[in-house]
């Protein structure tokens, strides 16, 4: 009887959490995603196919991976504009290290992965140090880093694209497992880890506390500066993973890679319900927001809509998300 009662209690707790999620911004957002998919499937029979849906997931993989770290940053009421340039920089640094290698050079391929992750973590840590301990404005810090990282990418590459990497490096962007593309699998793994970190750990609770009220968090004994430092470092690591996936997909490193990616990342996060004011957000919402943007882009492309109008519509969706977030904040105040 005790075992049965415990199972019933667990089921009730699980159902209560699901109901709370549906009542929050995630429920309506997911409903909107489903409705758009239904409409597009009627408008274009090609949309609701396995190949199209897989293609959407692959296309949004780079944005999605980078958006996981960005969600942590924005929940702390920060911002990271350097993510696109960092994606390009990590791929280019790894490509420079592996220049002239053969496809079967496993050691150099693994070294390229390690160097790319180290560069991402290092740049993220530098952003975090400037924001947390030097108390500089996140917008200005990451804007400057965006310019520096892009300039360093161009300097390292001399403005040229670099090709042909070891298979150990390109596997994360070009291979498949059981018919599923690696970029999609890597993105899903990063999202799951991000969700667990944000919702199931002390650090995740501290991130929400810092974003909700920084001074109250400090008085409660939360190491505010350390939490902010870790969030920006985490954003750098996810940007590096995105850079590895992108370089692997293309089997090349472009100096102009991921140009403007930071806007797509922020768009996916905001559409997913994370507040720019901080203190509210979720990894699940970010996932839905990123996929929603991908669905709109691919769906409109299948319908033959002019790409310029696609960009306009995407901007309109972002504007609506920001406006709803602002109205929500005013109601609370």
What portion of residues is helical? over 70%
List SSEs in N-to-C order: HHHHHHHEHEEHHHHEHHH
What is the end-to-end distance?
Answer: 48 Å
User: From the helix content, strand content and strand pairing, which structural class follows?
Assistant: mainly alpha
Question: How many distinct beta strands?
Answer: 4
Report the uncertain regions: none
Sequence of strands across the biggest β-sheet: 1-4
Shape: globular
Give the percentage of residues in beta strands: under 5%
Major sheet size, sense and barrel closure: 2 strands, antiparallel
Mean pLDDT: 88
Radius of gyration: 21 Å
Number of helices: 15
Can you walk through the features of this model?
This protein starts with a helix and ends with a helix. Strands 1-4 form a two-stranded antiparallel ribbon. Strands 2-3 form a two-stranded antiparallel sheet. It has helices at 2-23, 26-43, 50-59, 61-75, 83-97, 106-132, 138-157, 167-174, 182-199, 202-212, 214-219, 224-250, 261-271, 283-302, 307-332; strands at residues 162-163, 176-177, 180-181, 252-253. Helices cover 76% and strands 2% of the residues. The protein contains 15 helices and 4 strands. With 333 residues, the chain is an all-alpha fold. The longest helix has 27 residues, at 106-132. The chain has a domain at 48-259. Helix 13 crosses helix 15.
Short characterization:
With 333 residues, this protein is mostly helical.
Task: Fill in the keyword field for this structure.
cell membrane; mainly alpha; 15 helices; two-stranded antiparallel ribbon; 333 residues
